[in-house]
Structures are given as C-alpha cells and as structure tokens.
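retry 2 of 3: previous attempt timed out while embedding copper (II) ion. Reduced batch size to 1 and resubmitted. Inputs unchanged:
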Amino acid sequence: MKTSMQKLLLAVSLVAFPVAALALAPLPRRVEIKVTGDGYTPSKITAAPGETLTLVFRATADMGCCDQIVVAGQKVKVEKDKVSEATVTVPASGTLTFACSMSMCKGTVGK
Ligand SMILES: [Cu+2]
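retry 2 succeeded.
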C-alpha cells in the first residue's frame, strides 16, 4: 500500500522528471501461476486497467499442451526447472486472456 506522500512524490516527479520517475516506478507486481495439464491456477487474476504485471509460470510434472502459452502477443514455453515469465499491461478496456495455442487451457488478467 502506497502512502499518499509516496503517491504525491511520484506524481510530482512524473511531471518534473520523467526519466527519474521511470527509475522510481515500482517493479511490476509478480503473480505466480501453476501450470498443469488441466490448466492454470489461478486462472483469473484481478488487475486494474493499465496495470503492468509479470506473470510467472511455474511448471509441474504433467502440463500437456498447456505448457505453450500465448499472452498479449507473446509466446511463452513453460519448461521444468526454468522460470517462464511474461510482463503484460492490462488494456484500458479491462481484460486480457492467456491460453494455450488451442485455447483448451486459458485464463484472464483484468477485471
Ligand atoms: Cu492446449
């Protein structure tokens, strides 16, 4: 939770020092998603319009075709013992989806 002072500082620096504001901006929230042959857990991730977050896909033993994920135009291959991530920004309209190539396994990020 940001204090109102932090918000004020960020707002002021965004106007006065865009480059410095970039450095001050918080890192994207990281959300871990478990990948199994039955799909993604959680499959619904609540996020605000315009929020940038990093989806961190965690492999399991049997992922079936759910291990190949398409999200916001990025292709992510989930491999055991590797970190598979995608950083995405929720569209102003509200929700983006992530799914395997055949859309059998899917999830949403947004409202
Ligand atoms: Cu599939």
